[in-house]
Design a protein that fits this description.
CATH topology: Neuraminidase
Number of helices: 1
Number of domains: 1
Radius of gyration: 19 Å
Shape: globular
CATH architecture: 6 Propeller
Strand content: over 45%
Order of helices and strands: HEEEEEEEEEEEEEEEEEEEEEEEEEEEE
CATH class: Mainly Beta
Distance between the termini: 48 Å
Helix content: under 10%
CATH superfamily: Kelch-type beta propeller
Number of strands: 28
Structural class: mainly beta
Largest sheet: 6 strands, mixed
Length: 327
């Protein structure tokens, strides 16, 4: 019996998926005990955590977030790494929220989700509006351009070629989500894609038509790496982390995905399927942000635990030459 070309493609894909599902990330111990020394830059104008963040490659943006008093910010900050200076994107003001998902696509910034609740009530009503921020305008402005089909708390977000992908997160105090939605930044249209392998909060980045998500949590911490192939709309497990990564800031540079979590930097090479882990001089943070700007890895904000066990909101900004961790 002669198989059709479409049948052959399906068989090949399934065989590859089976092989990948049995694989583990090639964890390199070469750099496991190496310590990266970040330098300090100008601090943010105010301490904040659980903010939205994104970069256009040159400028880092910080959106909303929670203050040390438990209130939320309603502004958007921009950070120029070359001049080492912070500015406010004015006259733009948003709803005062934390846990905003943000991404730059098709020349604009888009904001999703976001809550007003304090740390002890994180699942207050979630913003259903999709906001487009025209930050490049002579007079920047913000407009509501769509309604989110499934507002979620702590969803993951990734942008690729004019599309923004939102995935995972929490629906309510007890229910984790496994949905994946794609938003067309130009047409302002939504499409639901293949479900995640698990209901979970997770973080990811897209490289070469593939979305990689790392760890996260549902009822327990997660240590797996999953890959979503955009072209065929399917998920497969591609590896395992050396430890669960629950609260991470994530960014990418070329074919490398960089995570900061629990005082450590993890670098995943999507071409090799390899993972490196470095210690840092930053200390433990949660609710921080991370971007790549002007070939530097920038880590900022978040909450530290001091020597007496008290949570302290941070305004610190750290910088590392990206070429110190990738080749």
């Amino acid at each position: 019996m002669k198989l059709s070309p479409s049948s052959v493609r399906k068989i090949v894909f399934l065989a590859v998926a089976v092989l990948q599902s049995c694989a583990s990330a090639n964890f390199s111990r070469e750099f496991e005990n190496s310590s990266l020394r970040f330098s300090r830059l100008t601090s943010m104008p105010s301490s904040r955590a659980y903010m939205g963040y994104c970069s256009n490659g040159q400028t880092t943006f910080v959106i909303g977030g929670e203050s040390r008093t438990g209130e939320s910010f309603d502004n958007i900050l921009s950070f120029n790494t070359k001049s080492n200076s912070w500015n406010e994107v004015t006259p733009v003001h948003i709803s005062a929220e934390k846990n905003i998902n943000s991404a730059i696509s098709s020349g604009s910034m888009f904001l999703f989700n976001g809550t007003k609740g304090q740390l002890n009530s994180p699942l207050s009503p979630i913003d259903i509006n999709v906001r487009e921020v025209a930050y490049n305008n002579r007079v920047p402005k913000v407009d509501n351009v769509s309604i989110n089909p499934q507002p979620l708390f702590k969803a993951g977000i990734s942008e690729y070629k004019g599309y923004i992908y939102l995935y995972g997160g929490m629906v309510d105090h007890e229910t984790y989500s496994n949905t994946l939605y794609r938003f067309n930044a130009k047409k302002k249209e939504w499409k639901q894609m293949a479900h995640l392998p698990k209901q979970m909060i997770t973080q990811g980045q897209i490289i070469d038509n593939k979305l990689y998500v790392f760890g996260g949590q549902n009822d327990k911490p997660i240590d797996e790496i999953y890959m979503y192939n955009i072209k065929v709309d399917r998920w497969v497990k591609v590896g395992k982390l050396p430890e669960p990564i629950v609260d991470a800031a994530i960014t990418s540079y070329k074919h490398h995905i960089i995570l900061f979590s629990n005082e450590q930097v993890f670098v995943y090479d999507t071409h090799k399927g390899s993972l490196m882990r470095f210690q840092t001089n930053i200390g433990a943070l949660k609710g921080m942000g991370a971007t790549i700007s002007n070939n530097n890895l920038i880590i900022f904000g978040g909450i530290k635990i001091n020597n007496s066990g008290k949570e302290v909101f941070s305004s610190a900004v750290y910088k590392l030459d990206i070429f110190k961790i990738i080749s």
